[in-house]
Amino acid sequence: QVQLVESGGGLVQAGGSLRLSCAASGIAFSFYVMGWYRQAPGKQRELVGTITSTSTTNYADSVKGRFTISRDNAKNTVYLQMNSLKSEDTAVYYCAARKWNRVEYDYWGQGTQVTVPS
Fold it and tell me: Dihedral of CA 107/80/65/34: which sign?
């Protein structure tokens, strides 16, 4: 059974930092591309960034320079370090996994809430 479990969300003041974690089980984690997505109230889900099996990263323009994705294949965990948080970063954050040769994500976590009051 595949599970992706996010943690680390919460309430943080503007300008603060949070680190989200996503622990994966049931998959050969090191072979998977991991993505972080977010969905704000009333908005469509959007891609925050991705990290390949070799730790190549890609980010949405809205978070470049503020967010960093990393992974620890030994721990089957991917991280999202979020700095200089803004109110517009308020959303439910999801991690997702896909095999390197697929376009669509195969597995999704349940999400973790990040709230940055304006």
Answer: negative
Cβ–Cβ < 8 Å for 109, 96 = yes
CA-to-CA separations, 47 to 35, 40, 59, 74, 75, in angstroms, rounded: 7, 12, 8, 25, 24
Distance of alpha carbon 8 from alpha carbon 21, whole angstroms? 6
Q: What is the rounded end-to-end Cα distance, in angstroms, of the chain?
A: 39
Distance CA 70, CA 85 (A): 18
Which pLDDT value is given to residue 50? 98
pLDDT at residue number 73? 96
Low-confidence ranges of the chain (pLDDT < 50): none
DSSP string, 53-80: TT--EEE-TTTTTTEEEEEETTTTEEEE
CA atoms within 13 A on the CB side of 24: 26
Number of H helices, E strands in the chain: 0, 11
Q: Are 116 and 13 in contact (CB under 8 A)?
A: yes
